[in-house]
Amino acid sequence: MRRPIVLILLVSIIISTLYTKNYNDKFYNIEDKYIQVEGVVKNIIYKEYYCEYAVGNFLIRDFNKSQSVRIGDYIQVKGIFKSSYNIKIDKFDYGIYLKSKGIDGIVNSDCIKSSEYYSMYFFINKMKTSITYSIKDIFRENYSFVNALILGDKTDLDINIKEVFSKAGVSHIIALSGLHVGIVIYIITLIIGKINNILKFFTISILIFLYFVIVGFKGSMFRACIFSFIIYLSVFVQREYDGMSALSLVGIILCIINPFIIYDIGVQLSFLATLSIIYFYDKIDKYVRCPLVSITLSASILTIPVVYYRFKIISNVFLITNILIVPTVGILIGLIFMCIFFYYINFSIIYLILSKIVCFIIFYIKSILFYLSSIKYSYIEFETVNLKLVVLYYILLMTYMIYNERKTVKEQLNEVRGYN
Question: What integer pLDDT is reported at residue 3 of this predicted model?
Answer without folding.
Answer: 73
